[in-house]
Amino acid sequence: MAKSHYITRQGWDALDRELKYLWKEERPRVTQAVSDAAAMGDRSENAEYIYGKKRLREIDRRVRFLSKRLEQLKIVEPDPRQEGKVFFGAWVKLEAEDETIKIYRLVGPDEFEPAKQWISIDSPVARALIGKQVDDEVSVSTPGGLATYSILAISYKSFEE
Q: pTM of the entire structure?
């Protein structure tokens, strides 16, 4: 399945910062280190030179990827008309059948972060939640079987704010 081209403003800014950092700070620093290592003579056994060239290739690959991806992405800002329903960028508080509470934020595939409970809009849970309202129930097929959740709250600002 193709990745969505949606991203939050916060996610786009983070990718843009990474691109600028790699291009303006990291790459010039590594290029200088490679140049200094090359000046030391025999390059075939020069670990700094070999590692530096490898790191430059990694940086260049990431810079190319970020440059292309940022051109494809569409920043989605929350619309006041979305209040009360789950759409892209929403924080959703769910209660599972076993009464455990889960909070997820629906974000683009370039910014999902399991540790923060940010899930991709392309994930099965997110797809099941789109368009739903508080008190709606959603069922999601998981590797462990069918999971059912009840929507307790929806917000377009973090519940901690």
A: 0.81
CA distance 43 to 49: 6
Same domain for 64 and 113, yes or no, is no
Same domain, residue pair 102 and 60: no
In the numeric block, which tokens belong to residue 37? 């290592």
Range of the domain at 30: 6-75
Is the domain of 110 the same as that of 64? no
pLDDT of residue 145: 87
Burial 17-34 (b: 16+ CB within 10 A, else e): eebeebbeebbeebeebb
CB proximity list for 13: less than 8 A, separation 6 or greater:
none
- What's the half-sphere exposure (Cβ side, CA atoms, 13 Å) at 75? 11
**Dihedral (C-alpha) 73, 79, 82, 86: value to the nearest 10 degrees?**
30
